[in-house]
Every structure is written in structure tokens, then in C-alpha cells.
Write a structure and sequence with these properties.
The protein has 382 residues and is α/β, with parallel strands linked by helices. It folds into 2 domains: 238 residues, Aspartate Aminotransferase, domain 2 (3-Layer(aba) Sandwich), CATH 3.40.640; 125 residues, Aspartate Aminotransferase, domain 1 (Alpha-Beta Complex). The protein is globular.
Length: 382
């Protein structure tokens, strides 16, 4: 009898002919850089997330950097960052010449631990970057209560379409930064979006995104004197999205809610089917939150588990099931550990998440048989 080995990736972008065809008009137009397709995508992204403004960027990392720069974060400032997140959250602070102040996370939610925020505040605290990790919004109202007057930049890398108490991610603080990487629910390849309801911050970020030019290329070329170059009164960056990506992003965005609904259905399936495994904790969604389910991240209780987390990952790999740690404890990475003289034990919640989270496949190209295969493989471990 032939045994069919499955290959279930941790994530696969759900794209097809519609996205491919969307780029045709861009090719034919001759305008390949940031232009009308990006503008259309920005408007639709802003509308979907009930934000006044949205600016497309080259990545979530550059969106974070752009937001901090627009907020005036710089040398001498401190920015509070959760210790369990992707490294770019912290890197964006250093790009501005400011200092990272790590906060621990709650292993039950993977999000920033609110109870310690007041003691982390100093006269130099300029901003905080709460991360809506894996698609679950951080408790932003509690953060505002703990840190009144501190600027809030939401790291929404995983949170397109997520909601907090009926409000969309990206509108809960002063600015929000989204990712459009292929591991996210909607994608433009590389790409990001910066959202805000603050028109002043948006205008400055828009200028900084385009080298600091006083007039955008689109405005200049459409104007009466396109041969005159703009003035540059601030130092900016080249963080502009291409119209190819804008066209693809518009198509993907139209599918966002369907994608989240599908992921929510299978997240509920996982929770129900995995409930009998005593050593595996599945994620919870607080009442009033809408989880975007960028990833399905469980937690292995190694006091009850028959095997360590990494051995479980190897077993699943042999069965054709890709897994990952949720993300990493940034304070334990070589650069940050050395820079700030940190030990893994300094942030025990983040370190526990680093060592014991287990992301299992959840994406819009999986089949019912794929999900059953993952569940049965976990149950077989013991």
C-alpha cells in the first residue's frame, strides 16, 4: 500500500488569476511606481479600517520607522516594546536613535503585560508600541490608562481586519503599522500600510515617505510645470509602494473578511478538536475582540507534555506538517542581549513564549483533510 505524505506549509498566500490580471493595467499605463493604484488601495484600506488616512509603504518595518519619525521620536527618547515580538518592532526604535525599553508579555495572550507599564515609564518615555500579536489586539484602553500622554504606535503587522471592542486595529492609538508580507492574511509580496486619524501626522509621514519632497511625484507630473523639482525641507526616506503592489493589494483587500471568516471557522475547529490534549493550550479571544487569526499559536506545557516542544515540531515535520515558534523573545537575541546586557530570565513571560509556543498551519489554502491531519498528528503524540 502506498502512503501519501502530506506537505502542509505553515502559511501560503491565497492569490490567483485575479491578482495577476490586476497588474495588467499597471504595465499598460507606463506608471509603475507609486501612483493611482496605490492611491486607490490606500483609500480602500482606510475605509475598511475606519481610519481617516492610510499610507502604503515598502514593509511594516518601514511603516513603523516612518510613524516613529513622524511622531518626533529621536535621540534621548525611550520607547516601550514587548519583549516577545518580531525583531523589527524593536529595530524601528533604534533606527530613530532612541532607546528600546522592553516590557514582558502575558503568556496567556502573547501580548504586552499591562501591570508593569507604569514602573517602566521615565521622563524620557516618548511612545509605546503595543503589538497585536498573531491577530489579537492588545488591551489598548488599559495601556492608555497606565501611560497617559504617551504616544501609541500600534504594531498591526498581524492584525489586518482585527477589532478591539468594536474598533478596528490601526485606529486605537495615534498611528498603526500593518504588514502585507506573504505570511499575513492579505499580501502584496513585501509591503506595509501606515494608518492614522491625525491629519498632521499623516501629512508629515507622507512627506517623509517620499524623500522629504515638498510635492509628490504624482502631483509634480500632473501639474503645470512638471520640469521643476520640488523643495526638500526635511530629510526623508524612499518608502513608497509600487503601483503593481497597489493593484494586487486592492484585490487582496476585497477578500480580507472572507479570509478571516474562513480562518475563524478553522480556529474554532482546532480549539474544539485539540481540547482533549492536556499539554497543549489553545488561544483564547476575549469577549468584544475580533481575532484576525494571522497565525494559530498554541502553547506547549512541558510539565505535562510527553516530549519537549522542539521534539514535537520535529515529529510533525516528519509527517509533513510545518510548524514554527510563535515568534522570538527579542531580548534574548544576540544583538539586544549584548546591547542592553539582558538575560533570558529578565522577561520570563517572553522567554516562556519563545521556548514553548507552537504555531500550527492555518491559512486559506488548507483543506478539511489538512486540518484533520494536523489534529490527528498532535493527538498521536500522546
Amino acid at each position: 500500500m502506498t502512503t501519501v505524505k502530506r506537505n502542509i506549509p505553515i502559511a501560503v498566500p491565497c492569490t490567483g488569476e485575479e491578482e495577476w490580471l490586476a497588474t495588467k493595467d499597471v504595465f499598460l499605463s507606463g506608471w509603475l511606481t507609486q501612483g493611482p493604484k496605490v492611491k486607490e488601495f490606500e483609500q480602500k484600506f482606510a475605509d475598511r479600517h475606519k481610519a481617516k488616512h492610510a499610507l502604503a509603504t515598502t514593509s511594516c518595518t518601514t511603516a513603523l520607522h516612518l510613524a516613529l519619525a513622524a511622531m518626533g521620536v529621536g535621540p534621548g527618547d525611550e520607547v516601550i516594546v514587548p519583549a516577545f515580538t518580531w525583531v523589527s518592532t524593536a529595530n524601528s526604535v533604534l533606527y530613530c536613535g532612541a532607546e528600546v525599553v522592553f516590557a514582558d508579555v502575558d503568556p496567556l495572550t502573547n501580548n504586552i503585560e499591562i501591570s508593569q507599564l507604569k514602573k517602566l515609564r521615565t521622563p524620557r518615555t516618548k511612545a509605546i508600541i503595543p503589538v497585536h500579536l498573531f491577530g489579537l489586539c492588545a488591551d489598548v484602553d488599559a495601556i492608555k490608562d497606565a501611560l497617559p500622554g504617551v504616544l501609541i504606535l500600534e504594531d498591526c503587522a498581524c492584525a489586518a481586519g482585527a477589532e478591539y471592542k468594536g474598533r478596528p486595529a490601526g485606529t486605537l492609538g495615534d498611528m498603526g503599522a500593518f504588514s502585507l508580507h506573504p505570511r499575513k492574511s492579505v499580501t502584496t509580496g513585501e509591503g506595509g500600510v501606515l494608518t492614522t486619524n491625525n491629519t498632521t501626522l499623516n501629512e508629515l509621514a507622507d512627506t517623509l515617505r517620499n524623500h522629504g519632497a515638498s510635492v509628490s511625484e504624482e502631483q509634480r507630473h500632473a501639474g503645470p510645470r512638471p520640469y521643476l523639482l520640488p523643495d526638500f525641507n526635511v530629510m526623508g526616506f524612499n518608502y513608497r509602494m509600487t503601483d503593481f503592489q497597489g493593484a494586487v493589494g486592492t484585490v487582496q483587500l476585497s477578500k480580507l473578511d472572507r479570509f478571516i471568516d474562513e480562518r475563524s471557522h478553522w480556529a474554532a475547529y482546532y480549539k474544539r478538536e485539540l481540547a482533549s490534549i492536556p499539554w497543549l493550550r489553545t488561544p483564547e479571544t476575549p469577549r468584544g475582540w475580533r481575532h484576525a487569526w494571522q497565525a494559530y499559536v498554541t502553547f506547549v506545557d512541558e510539565t505535562k507534555s510527553p516530549k519537549p516542544r522542539n521534539e514535537i515540531m520535529e515529529i510533525l515535520q516528519q509527517k509533513g506538517i510545518a510548524t514554527r515558534p510563535g515568534t522570538h523573545a527579542v531580548h534574548a537575541l544576540g544583538f539586544y542581549s549584548n546591547k542592553y546586557n539582558l538575560k533570558t530570565s529578565d522577561f520570563p513571560g517572553a522567554w516562556a513564549c519563545d521556548q514553548q509556543t507552537l504555531a500550527i498551519p492555518l491559512h486559506n489554502k488548507m483543506t478539511e483533510e489538512d486540518y484533520a491531519w494536523v489534529v490527528n498528528a498532535l493527538k498521536d503524540i500522546g
